[in-house]
Design a protein that fits this description.
Layout lengths: L21 H13 L7 E5 L5 H8 L3 E6 L4 H11 L9 E4 L13 E7 L8 H11 E12 L7 H8 L5 E8 L4 E7 L20
Parallel strand pairs: 1-2, 1-4, 2-3, 4-5
Antiparallel strand pairs: 5-7, 6-7
Helix pairs in contact: 1-2
Amino acid sequence: GRVLRIAQHHGPRLGLAASVWEAALFLCRYLGEQHLDFQGRSVIELGAGTGIVGILAALLGGDVTITDQPAALDQIRENIELNFPPAATRRPRVRALVWGRDEGSFPGDYEVVLGSDIVYHPPSFPALLGALRSLCGRRSLGLLSAKMRGGEGGARRFFHQLLPRYFSVRLLRRDPGEELELYGVTAPSGPGDLGEGATGTWPGSG
């Protein structure tokens, strides 16, 4: 029921970061439909592009930090301005985060880690795994959505082979027609405590 205003500055400077991709909308719909309790929780969005997912999490009450490569930050800031009045108390913060370089300057215990379509480039997988391991604590819940492109060596390999080496990974939602999948990611001991996760069940699974 929320209307978001999102600017998209297409061109060579931003490249893929300029667009709202299907996986971001897929994750946004999930967040809205599951009525997850973000109130006061620390949230970080990785590889945010336009920032649409983090903006929605902030509108749902989260204490949100939106991150991406430095070139994308002005677009994210513009989209925050389009969706939050200047006096809003829950305006997201915007910070550069280059995986494999910057994650050490961030807290290591975010309650919620969000990412959409951030696993399309296999050479970046080791750095992304390192960033996730640095940013996630024992009670963190990751929600990662992706277009399952690239065959067995792309997103499928990341979610089915690489990520499970360090985290518990569970498929929460799939759209076969659009080849979209959404995964919940937690420390190996079990689900985080976001909303229904506190009872040991996964919102929207099954």
